[in-house]
C-alpha cells in the first residue's frame, strides 16, 4: 500500500459585507492557526485566537450502562432452556448479574440469558468533551471578499485498487480510489484532487540521519479538498488527469461529500490493458505452479501500488498486489494455483573435492515437470540457486530460455498427461 501521508485541506469562506468581521470555522477540528496557511482576497487578518471550549453531547449508552442504571429495579430473566426468574436486580459485574427473587440471590451469566426484561430507560446519555476552536479577526475592504484556510490532516486517507478484466486476449483495467474519513470533520460539496504531486505532506518521506535528511525511497501522495463550492450534481464524479508529466494526479469533475467516519469508493479510469497470461513455477514461491498475468502499464503515468483483482470471461480468477508501476513497465500477478502442473525438484548428486580449507562443490539438480491437464500447455520454470562468489553453471539437459546471476529459466511445452525432465549442474567453492 501507500506510505503514511497527510492530506491537504483548503477551506474558503466569503465575507459578504465590507468592514470588521470575525470568522469562526467551527467545522475545522483541532487545528491551531499556527498550523494553517491563511490566504485572503480583499481582506486583512489582524488577529487569530485559539481557544478551548467545553461542550456536552449525547451518545448512545452501552448495554452495561443500561444494566447499571437498572440496579434496584424489578426485572424478568429467561434462562435457557426453560427457566424464568423474576426479582430485583442487585448488581452487574464483568458479565454476571445478581438477582434477588425473594428467597435467595442468584448469580446468572449473561451468556446464559435468552431474554432480559428491564424497566425502560433512556438509550442516550450526556458526555462532556473538549473542542478547540479558531477565531480570526479582520476587516474586509470589498464586498464578497474571500478568506482561505489551508492545513494538513491525518484523518483523511486514500488507497488504490484495480480490476483487470480479460477476454479472448483483450484486457480492460479499471482503477479505483477508496477514500476514508476517520475524523470528526465533514467535507461537504468539496472539490477533490487525488495526487502524487505536491503538496508533499508524507510522514517519514524524508528521514534524518547523521548526514542530514535523505530520501527514503517512498513517494508522495495527498488528498486536496477545496470546500465552499456549489452543490454538485447527483451521482459519482468522473476524473480527469491534472498533469501529463508521468505523475499520477486526478481531479474530480464535481464536488463530493464525505461525512465523519465514512468512506466511499470511486472509479478513476477504465482503459485498454496489455497483458500476457502464462503458467509459472518459481522456487521463490514454493512448490506450487501459478496462473500468472503479466500486466504492462501502457499509460503515460505511473500506476500507484494496490491490489489487482483479475476476471477472465467474467469469472474471478484471483488477486495479487502491484508496487509502484512506472509507465511501460511490467509486473506479474500471481493470482491463483495451476493444479494441472506439478514440478518435483530433487538433488541427484552433490560432490565435494579439494583440500586446505578450499572445497569445490558440484551439484546436479533434476526438475520433473508433469502436466495433469487435458491439453498441451507451456510452463515457465524458474529455479533459483543460492548465490556464491564463484557460482557457475556447468551443463544443462535442456537449454534455458534465460540465465540470470542466480537463476535459470526454462519454457517447456508439456503434452497432456506427459512429463519432462530438466537436469542441470553447477559448481561453487567453500572454505569449510
Walk me through this protein's architecture.
- It is a single chain.
- This protein is 2% helix and 62% strand.
- Mean pLDDT is 84; it is low at 199-219 and 227-233.
- The protein has one helix and 32 strands.
- It is extended, with a radius of gyration of 33 Å.
- It has one helix spanning 63-69; strands at residues 7-15, 19-23, 37-41, 43-60, 74-79, 83-93, 96-100, 105-109, 113-117, 124-140, 145-153, 156-167, 170-181, 187-195, 206-209, 212-215, 222-226, 239-241, 249-252, 256-258, 262-282, 289-296, 306-312, 315-322, 330-337, 341-355, 358-371, 377-384, 392-396, 402-403, 407-414, 419-430.
- It folds into four domains: 62-121, SH3 type barrels (Roll); 174-270, no CATH class; 272-337, no CATH class; 341-430, Sandwich (Immunoglobulin-like), CATH 2.60.40.
